[in-house]
């Protein structure tokens, strides 16, 4: 009987405040959708870091004849065979180095033509203008500075470059965008909480006579408050379900189908469905608890019986 009463009161309350209930649902859906999206973006950045940092190389570019004429780092001339041999030997002795790969001028020219063959500059280049290099795979990508300190300024070395620095700029941008999404989510969350409080306040005011009678006949405070709290929880839960549906459809149509980013951008290791599925229960739990708690504390102030 009591459960039936609570359920009937929930329906009455939702119908009486239909416009505000709809606003609560939309606000909760948007705020929790942004919250879930931010969590997924954070997972995506972490996945990309793990994938790409494992593939980055440190490159030691060696002086050629053209560099000897124009680059101060190569003032002593092009790299010699003995210098190349010594550089490789020293690299292989270093504990931070995992593998060392030599790239000749012909190989560098071939790779350049494959990547930039359509550019006007490619037509004027010749293999002897390309630089020989050593590509070093580090055991820990953070140890680049060890290589830079050991080989920068060395005879025959034109420069030491770390590919990780290029990726850091990308990940910094992604983290910045993720932070902006979190700020928008926080703003939407505040709006949703304010709407929930106002909805509960209006609902309590419109039913003040009923609640007063219930108090006079001996109903407990929690029994009186339960329908209001349940109304907020139901509205929030609907918003949470919409947020989960939106995130699921968003991933499906952007990564797997529709935009099909997984197929078009094979260089990016996208997060899987397991990452999304672990976030959905958290979103649903938040959609229930957040409105219920907001309603509970609002009732302590606004429910006068």
Q: Which strands sit side by side, in order, in the main sheet?
A: 2-3-1-4
- Structural class of the secondary elements? alpha+beta
What is the succession of H and E elements? Answer: HHEHHEHHEHEHHHHH
* Beta content: 5-15%
- Ranges where pLDDT stays below 50 over 5 or more residues in a row are none
Calculate Rg over CA atoms: 32 Å
Q: Work out the helix count.
A: 12
Assembly state (oligomeric)? single chain
Largest sheet: 4 strands, antiparallel
Tell me the overall shape: elongated
> What's the β-strand tally?
4
Distance between the amino and carboxyl termini: 22 Å
Care to describe what's here?
By secondary structure, the chain is an alpha+beta fold. The protein has twelve helices and four strands; from the N terminus they run ααβααβααβαβααααα. A four-stranded antiparallel β-sheet has the order 2-3-1-4. It is elongated, with a radius of gyration of 32 Å.
List the helices and strands and how they pair.
Blueprint: H1 2-16, H2 18-53, E1 58-62, H3 65-70, H4 81-93, E2 97-103, H5 105-116, H6 120-124, E3 133-138, H7 144-151, E4 157-162, H8 164-206, H9 208-216, H10 221-256, H11 261-264, H12 273-302
Antiparallel strand pairs: 1-3, 1-4, 2-3
Helix pairs in contact: 1-10, 2-8, 2-10, 2-12, 8-10, 8-12, 10-12
